[in-house]
Amino acid sequence: MSAADPFADIRAAIARRFGSGARVENISVPTLGGSNRTVIFDLVEQARRRRLVSRQETYQAEDSPFRTPIEQFRVMQIAHAHGFPVPEPVFAYEPADGAGQGFVTGFVAGETMPKRIQGDPALAETRPRLAEAAGRLLAKLHAIPASEAALLESCPDSIDTLAAHRARFDHYAEAHPAIELGLRWLERNRPEIEARLRRPRRWARRGT
User: Distance (Å, rounded) from C-alpha 86 to C-alpha 137?
Assistant: First the structure.
């Protein structure tokens, strides 16, 4: 990225993979959260045009709740290979790109704002189907063999999901009585690990 062309790093990364004839056009920068630099653009190769999304890490800290970009990209590759409806993983940035940590995926149009999903009249026919769709997708996700995502074994959420959420909540040092009440109830009524691990498998079989 440079002052003269703030998207020079993306252009260079595209040229490295698709050749000097590939062009980056129709660039848009959404006003999203600050944990990533998100840039939407068209990749143009002769007569072919593809809408892509670049996500580059902008927040780094030892206590970051986010998985590394390369881990996110790898998990997306696994899910995509199993037919899960995630954006197509195109490539992950490398040090030679000079673009930091991040990746490029296909662009998927849709609504992500909860308030709009809940109230937009245009989505009235979609809302009644959301719960069933979510259940089917979660069953499909649970059906992916855990061995294929071994990179997540060291993730705090994989080791102890409840403890990971507790640590995350305590880190913010903010008063949220309802969340505190929920966490305390879960801590006092924690299910046995084996039972917790078996349940998703049975659910996944019923949902497929």
Answer: 11
Q: Which amino acid is at 134?
A: A
Q: Which two tokens stand for residue 155?
A: 């993730």
Residue 132's alpha-carbon distances to 24, 111, 153, 207, in angstroms, are 39, 18, 29, 10
Give this prediction's pTM.
0.80
CA–CA separation, 187 and 108 (whole Å): 38
Total Cβ atoms within 10 A of residue 163: 13
Report residues of the chain scoring pLDDT below 50.
194-208
Q: What's the pLDDT tens digit per position in 128-153?
A: 999 999 999 999 988 999 899 999 88
Instruction: For each of the domains in the chain, give its residue range(s) and CATH number, in order of start.
Output: 1-109 (3.30.200.20)
How far apart CA 112 and CA 93 sit, in angstroms, is 25
Q: Which residues contact 126 (CB under 8 A, 6 or more apart)?
A: none
Which is nearest to 57 in space by CA: 67, 47, 42?
67
- CA-nearest of 115, 103, 30, 22 to 70 is 103
Tokens found for residue 100? 């930091």
